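How a chain folds remains the central question behind the approach discussed here. In the encoding step, the backbone of a single protein was reduced to a row of integers, each denoting a local shape. We regard such an encoding as a compact summary of how the chain folds. The sequence in question and its structure tokens are set out directly beneath this paragraph:

___
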Amino acid sequence: MTSTNLRIRIDGAAGAAAPYEQLRAQIADRARSGKLPAGYKLPTVRGLAEELGLAANTVAKAYRALEADGVIETRGRNGTFVAAAEGSSREAAAAAQAYAERAHRLGLTETEATEAATTALRARYTTR
């Protein structure tokens, strides 16, 4: 079973780790390596369970363990996100997520949104 968005693969073979542990470990590894950046919105428990062919309780158990470890954070009805390690990084990730959501609502393509953000960053960080 493989998740297309997260590239999570659950090995159902005998002797493999429990599915929740495989899921927990793979999300944690991707978050720590930066493959899942801070602020990345994870699928809902039900959505990921369906995608992987797992019980919702299995995914919920993995999410609870990840949250206890500080790898992810739940923001109420807004969803579950990869947590930032530090306060300023967490704030930047939240701002980036808000920008991405706003740009999407405005109908910008990913390229247009990236170009607008890059232009703003260059303007701010370029010494004059």
